[in-house]
Write a sequence for this structure.
């Protein structure tokens, strides 16, 4: 029967709370090999095993026992005092100092975690989801493996997360090279990021009816005098309308009457999965195009439902006006319904995580944290009546 949690108040400088066999002697500085602890009798004991009674525990550590009514302090092991009982480990989301104290054996981001959670854009200490390996929000700083910005590849990692567990790439239209002006009228060698991680070179573009200004090299978009126009008169800060694919800030600048995604466009191009700043095979922009499969809506278009979750939609590469969504084959959450059963939440095909499926853990492995174990390192990884031997749970 479960009685209570106790907090060990250690009174000796050379004490262990994880004894097992005592076959090794501590050195003269109370040190033991890795994974061993030095007890007050100067012997080394393996971690993960606890005395079976209050009497044995007191004799081992020479300690006082004080009841506590809350989660143990960081790094402490919680022990349940009862004849024949198993060790009690910290639960998911509890503050921890090492994996030895956690039910899952994993201490990540300072809390007991369901998995190793070591990707650059996932974390186990996300508010409201402590203990669950969760996606970091879009535009947030990366964690365990930095999304390092490399000046040699400016269109790749931009230093933040994309909200889907990976590093974000530089936004479309980001400059990745220095263009040149040819005879004051043509912009050549302009290089920009395509929004998918690649640096693309645009086709040479006539700046008419403006000139190509040299500092920095770019086609002018307004004028204050006739010298800034290629063959026209500057009137009301304009030399005239500009062609599709040229940079713009207002529809009135474009001959088509549409300024979309920062360029003059062939149409209004407002479909959720359309864009006008995609670069075609000839190096040109300005044609309304359906985004490729897996892309996210651009500009001020509505985001796909489920943003920042495993069920988030994305453009399917076919339908211009709608996102496609993961179905029931995609897991979006999990929990242990018992020590031998895992319940997984699945996507509903509309950006939500509302379906579920359950299954029994295989091979006598236990459901620990939120998932069935597939290997073991200690008896706590196995179901009741089984123990861990060479990474496999076996019935006693």
């Amino acid at each position: 029967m479960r009685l209570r949690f106790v907090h060990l108040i250690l009174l000796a400088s050379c004490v262990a709370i994880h004894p097992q066999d005592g076959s090794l002697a501590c050195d003269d500085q109370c040190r033991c090999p890795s994974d061993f602890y030095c007890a007050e009798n100067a012997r080394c004991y393996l971690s993960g095993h606890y005395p079976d009674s209050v009497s044995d525990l007191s004799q081992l550590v020479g300690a006082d026992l004080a009841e506590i009514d809350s989660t143990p302090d960081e790094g402490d092991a919680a022990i349940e005092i009862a004849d024949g009982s198993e060790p009690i480990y910290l639960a998911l989301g509890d503050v921890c100092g090492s994996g030895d104290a956690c039910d899952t054996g994993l201490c990540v981001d300072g809390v007991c975690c369901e998995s190793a959670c070591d990707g650059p854009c996932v974390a186990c200490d996300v508010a409201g989801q402590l203990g669950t390996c969760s996606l970091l929000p879009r535009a947030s700083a990366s964690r365990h493996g930095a999304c390092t910005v490399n000046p040699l590849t400016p269109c790749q990692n931009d230093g933040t997360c994309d909200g889907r567990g990976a590093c974000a790439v530089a936004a479309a239209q980001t400059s990745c090279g220095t263009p040149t002006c040819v005879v004051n009228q043509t912009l050549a060698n302009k290089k920009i990021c395509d929004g998918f991680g690649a640096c693309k070179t645009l086709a040479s573009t006539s700046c008419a009816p403006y000139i190509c200004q040299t500092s920095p090299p770019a086609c002018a978009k307004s004028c204050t005098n006739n010298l800034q126009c290629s063959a026209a008169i500057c009137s009301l800060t304009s030399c005239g309308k500009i062609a599709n694919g040229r940079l713009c800030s207002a529809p009135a600048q474009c001959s088509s009457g549409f300024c979309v995604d920062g360029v003059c466009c062939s149409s209004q191009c407002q479909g959720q999965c359309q864009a006008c700043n995609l670069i075609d095979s000839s190096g040109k922009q300005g044609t309304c195009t359906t985004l490729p499969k897996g892309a996210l809506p651009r500009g001020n278009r509505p985001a796909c439902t489920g943003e920042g979750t495993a069920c988030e939609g994305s453009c399917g590469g076919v339908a211009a006006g709608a996102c496609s969504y993961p179905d029931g084959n995609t897991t979006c959450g999990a929990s242990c319904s018992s020590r031998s059963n895992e319940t997984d939440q699945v996507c509903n095909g509309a950006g939500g995580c509302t379906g579920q499926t359950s299954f029994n853990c295989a091979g006598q492995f236990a459901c620990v944290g939120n998932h069935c174990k597939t290997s073991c390192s200690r008896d706590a990884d196995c179901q009741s009546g089984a123990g861990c031997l060479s990474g496999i749970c076996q019935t006693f």
About this structure: The longest strand covers residues 331-338. Residues 223 and 237 are 5 Å apart (CA to CA). The two ends are 21 Å apart (CA to CA).
